[in-house]
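Justification of computing resources. Each target in the renewal requires a structure prediction run like the one illustrated here; the chain below, 104 residues long, is used simply to show the kind of job we budget for.
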Amino acid sequence: MAILEFLLVIGMSGLVGLFITNNLNENKQKRRLDEAFYQLLENQNSQISLIQLAASARVEAQVAQQYLDQQVKIFSAILDVDDEGDTFYRFPRLRLPPSSSQEW
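Resulting structure tokens:
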């Protein structure tokens, strides 16, 4: 009976460990996606393609697509195609306040 309880405790500990590890990985991915998304908005004139986001954040395309789909809904972005046939999302222009380090 004690062996079964021991195995149950070990099994539950393993599941909790997997859950924590998975949660930490998802948080890291979310942070990388957030950083890449806002950096691309600033650098790419508010136009972001899926491959740009996936490569910048270093995540799988499916993960980047889910993230981009959420941002499209939140910011009401428009799917567009450029002259070369590449698709990208056009987000509202990012207008950052002037840096406090700039001199008048």
